[in-house]
Amino acid sequence: MTTTVPHPAAKTTVRDRLLRLAETVTTPLLPEDYLDLVAPLRAGAALRGRIVAVEPETRDAATLTIRPGRDWRGHTPGQYVRLGVDVDGVRQWRAYSLTSAPDRPDRLISVTVKAIPDGRVSNHLVRRTRVGTVVQLDQALGDFVLPDPVPARVLFLTAGSGITPVMGMLRAGVHTRADVVVVHSAPTPDDVVFGAHLRALAAQGGIRLVERHTDRDGLLGVAELATLVPDHLDRQTWACGPVGLLDAAEQHWTAAGVADRLHTERFRPTVIAPGEGGSVTFTRTGLTLAADGGTPILDAGEAAGALMPSGCRMGICYGCVLPLRQGAVRDLRTGELTTAVPGDGVLIQTCVSAAAGTCDIDL
Amino acid sequence: MTVIQHKPVNPIAHLSAEDIETLGKELDAIRDRVLAERGASDAAYIRKVIKTQRTLEMSSRAVLLFSLFPPAWVVGTAGLAVAKILENMEIGHNILHGQYDFMRDPKIHSTTWEWDHVSPADQWKHSHNQLHHTYTNVLGKDNDLGYGIMRVDEDQKWYPMHLGQPLWNFVNACFFEYGIAAYDLELGRNLRKGRHKAPEFRARLRAVGRKIRRQVLKDYVIHPLLSGPSFLTTLAATFTANLIRNLWSHSVIMCGHFPSGVETFSKTSIEGETRGEWYLRQMLGSANISGSRLLHIMTGNLSFQIEHHLFPDLPSKRYQEIAPQVRALFDRYGLTYTTGPLPKQVASAWWKVIRLSLPNRETARPAADEPPARVLATSGV
Ligand SMILES: Cc1cc2nc3c(=O)[nH]c(=O)nc-3n(C[C@H](O)[C@H](O)[C@H](O)COP(=O)(O)OP(=O)(O)OC[C@H]3O[C@@H](n4cnc5c(N)ncnc54)[C@H](O)[C@@H]3O)c2cc1C
Ligand code: FES
User: Fold this and answer.
1) Which CATH number fits domain A153-266: 2.130.10.10, 3.20.20.70, 3.40.50.80, 3.10.129.10?
2) Which residue of A235, B231, B312, B356 has the fewest CB atoms within a 10 Å radius of its CB?
3) Is there a contact between B114 and B146 (Cβ–Cβ < 8 Å)?
4) Which tens digits make up the pLDDT trace of B178-200?
């Protein structure tokens, strides 16, 4: 073929050429398939991490310290990382807030996981993970972070494992730059993840800590904040915890007309409306499966062995988006119906969408 | 063999329709038990085989850099042949069957895997998984029966060109991967029907061309060049390794469906086939190879062809585990579990190729004008 159009300045570097040559040596595999055998954390590899320590925090929570691959770009306190873990031989992806300070000299990162009843990944990580295991990672994500400069007065409203992103912020030293109150709920004093650390910070006067032990004193009602933290509505608040707490907080702050001062992080979506279900076809893979109306298409596809893209698995990161070629899906959070007719490519979040009829998805 | 429906003594006449459905349920139960256990050990197994294979392949190729030196030639060629066999059989064939899709590891998945073979993975998956495994041993539907170039069943019509089939079979064995590529392309049929200009066929042809180019470049240009003064000896070594791999996989695959004892089926017999009947066809249409653990690994566990055909997507190392249960079912239902050592099965398959290169002797055929009844739902026990 002859062409008169000059090539755009797409420079093939020596490195590219070497890589192409290496590919002719290893085809049908890629050079990386061999390199991964010896150096899974090297620069240029798919991002992975090696677990270097597993330390229990409470009877059902543990902190995993991870050496990330060379291409790890660091994180902002409050962000989370997606972890791909092989549980019973099956790759499972879950999001975990980073609990380490962002600038550790040893470049290690940590996440703190609370095992939830019947939770597949959380129980595996807390109870069965061995040091030396290589896990898959993604770059840090999330906007549950403090602005710069940090507001003068800050409230952290947390419960259970919801303390994790806050711990990352405390380790980065927010309390040295702001007046910080932490209101944290857990069943008993022993169940407080990072209890010793938080109490020590409070004892040194770094933060004001309000612990709520729900086995004895019952769940915290947001109305109680008026007495516990009288100026809470004047503070910038970061809240993370179970759905009930976050929903109540959102109502409370909205009713007071200061919804903009409340920042929340949810660990799971609030599901309200199961759809009708239907058969889902992944058109490129040629896989058809029956999905019920309560199961996200992401979960249904994974269970059938499809390689589904995914991210937070709760509707915030858009890492799971796929084109719906035709059919109907229902958003599990809002009940909203999305339809597509042949020729369309409506982008849907598979992690929060269930089939509402026969669907063709471009995968 | 003769299509089961034409046999003087029908080997499944003693089974009632209910028997066949119960048999199907028992096989489903075996499958469910494996699925319940499938997990970490299967993932660890395939990762270990892959790691071993890659290490072996790279070290053999490294040794071949010095292939001018005869001991290096021998060691490197043997290592490379074994690596290529592992890659095609225990790794490629089984991953492309989706046996490890459950792991959700994008690096070990039927939709992303490409193998060391001139037939591109997606074309092979179509002709093998969708056609051969669905229409196993159905005359006129399963092209694996003689690959469209040979007569391997009395019920296939004899033409004079079949006289040469022992020779075709030998040539096919030596260049088996090209034979498979041609077969996956349905080259013969597409050319015969004048479809060589159809865009779909041309696209597939181009894909095969690209794959062949890459494979040949790697094996016969790049690696020999890297060997410098050992250029020619490395070229000969890679050729030999490919030849060994081809002869080996051809032998193993012949043993799967050609030896005596294996049944074939007529097209009409599979109309409206139930799950139980499908299982039964797989049971009777396949043959195993008996042998050591090493043999099983080197055949990609296709030595458990019967178990593989019953459950093509279960991780291959499970076949050995369930074989006694499957065999017990054969015994209980009065069916013949065809198996034998490799040399015997290979000889049996070759004997058939030679025998059927000649027309049938008339006594071999019962009255052919009886209607091809759906045997799978006949008399009670
Ligand atoms: C942005 C983000 C940050 C997160 N950070 C952390 C963290 O720092 N520490 C941490 O422990 N977890 C965190 N999570 C939650 C975590 O990703 C998993 O959802 C959690 O570990 C449960 O996974 P599993 O596989 O154990 O449970 P699954 O096997 O998926 O679920 C088991 C059962 O538990 C329910 N369930 C699922 N998730 C939760 C949940 N979060 N709480 C209560 N019930 C649930 C399910 O509906 C199901 O019935 C975070 C989630 C998000 C989206
Ligand atoms: S996985 Fe994050 S939006 Fe669906």
Assistant:
1) 3.40.50.80
2) B231
3) no
4) 999 998 998 888 888 888 888 99
Dist. CA A83 → ligand 1 center (Å): 12
Pocket test for ligand 2, best of A93, A143, A268, A351 (most atoms within 8 A of CB): A351
A257 φ/ψ sector (left φ>0, alpha ψ -120 to 50, else beta): left
Instruction: For chain B, report the end-to-end CA distance as a whole number of angstroms.
Output: 24
Task: Write out pLDDT tens, residues A256-295.
Answer: 999 999 999 999 887 766 668 899 999 998 899 999 999 9
DSSP string of B281-340? HHHHS----B--HHHHHHTTTGGGHHHHHH-TTS-THHHHHHHHHHHHHHHHTT------
N- to C-terminal Cα separation, chain A? 34
Q: Which atom of ligand 2 is nearest to the CA of A311?
A: 1
Taking an 8 Å cut-off on Cβ atoms, the answer to whether B106 and A307 are in contact is yes
Which residues on A lie below 8 Å from B43 (Cβ)?
86, 89-90
Q: Which residues line ligand 1 (CB under 6 A)?
A: A 80, 94-97, 111-114, 116, 118-122, 142, 161, 164, 265, 267-268, 312, 314
ipTM: 0.87
- List of chain B residues whose C-beta atoms are within 8 Å of the C-beta of residue A24: 214, 217-218, 222
Predicted TM-score (pTM) of this structure: 0.90
- Strand spans (E) along chain A: 48-58, 61-68, 80-87, 90-97, 109-114, 134-137, 153-159, 179-186, 208-213, 236-240, 262-265, 278-282, 287-291, 321-331, 337-340, 346-349, 353-355, 359-361
